[in-house]
Structure formats: C-alpha cells, structure tokens
Write a structure and sequence with these properties.
alpha+beta; Aminopeptidase; seven-stranded mixed β-sheet
C-alpha cells in the first residue's frame, strides 16, 4: 500500500503588501554582488525541457564580483495558464538556491527581495511557492516575506513489495 510521507505546503505572497527587509548585512551583499536576470533561459537538461519547455521562466542570479561566480539563484515561472481565472498576474517560485557555505547569511533574502521588486514593477501581483512540511526553515523564511499558507497536498510513497 501507500503511506503518507509528508505534506506539501502551498504558500502565496501578495506583492502589494511586501516590504523586503533592509539591514547592514543586505546592503553589504548589494555592494559585493551583481543581480542578473535571464528571461526564458534555454533548458539545461532534457528533463527541464520536458517540464518547463512550454512555460515562460525568469531566472534571477546573484553574481559575486570578488569570486567571479554565481552564488545564489531564484527561478520563477509565469503562472498565466492558471492565474488567468484569478484575475491577476502571478509568478511561481520553483527554485531558490544559495551556495551551501553562504546559507543563512542573507543572500536568499536579498535575492528574493530584489526579484520581488522587479516582478512587482512588471505587474506581478502575487507569488506562489511550495515547500515540504518538514522544511521548517523554508516555511519560516517565506513567512518572514509575507507568504501565507493557502493549501496543502499530501506526498504518498508506495511501500516496497514484501
């Protein structure tokens, strides 16, 4: 049979209410990095082409000027196929990555805050993200930005055959 493995938390953020955090730490990140954006990047793998090929994506990256490399990225997809019936423009955050040694230093906060500013200027009214229920750090991070849980899904796993 199947057993419940975890719950997927679906969270939304109304961009009209978001005020990205400001701190000395985030100002330092702004000085030492460059925000770059790639609209509808080419898929890197066959799987990515199958999953995201027909949807417009927007990838924001933080490029560390001193290390000459990307240290964080946030990937969004245009939710127009789903959000049209909501009467607003929405984007889905499907990947938020920070280089492991740099985690919990403000890079994700700075990157998401800047991404929100740009998307809001383009008319995006809401952002939706999903995270697993056991990922308390991600849920706390999204809550800090004003995301609220709007729905849940259940992840089932089939037990191995006896």
């Amino acid at each position: 049979g199947y057993r419940e493995l975890d719950q997927v938390r679906i969270m939304q953020c109304d961009l009209a209410r978001v005020r990205p955090p400001v701190s000395r730490e985030l100002r330092m990140i702004k000085r030492t990095t460059q925000l770059m954006e790639k609209i509808d990047p080419a898929p890197k793998t066959w799987w990515e082409a199958c999953v995201w090929g027909s949807l417009q994506r927007d990838v924001f990256t933080l490029f560390d000027k001193a290390q000459n490399r990307v240290v964080a990225s946030a990937s969004f997809w245009d939710m127009q196929p789903l959000s049209a019936c909501w009467g607003m423009c929405a984007a889905g955050l499907f990947e938020l990555y920070v280089d492991p040694p740099l985690r919990r230093r403000g890079y994700a906060s700075y990157l998401l805050g800047e991404s929100i500013r740009i998307l809001r200027r383009r008319g995006v009214a809401t952002i939706e993200a999903q995270t697993m229920g056991v990922n308390e750090a991600a849920r706390a991070f999204y809550t800090k930005f004003g995301f609220t849980e709007i729905d849940r899904g259940i992840l089932y796993r089939k037990d191995a055959a006896p």
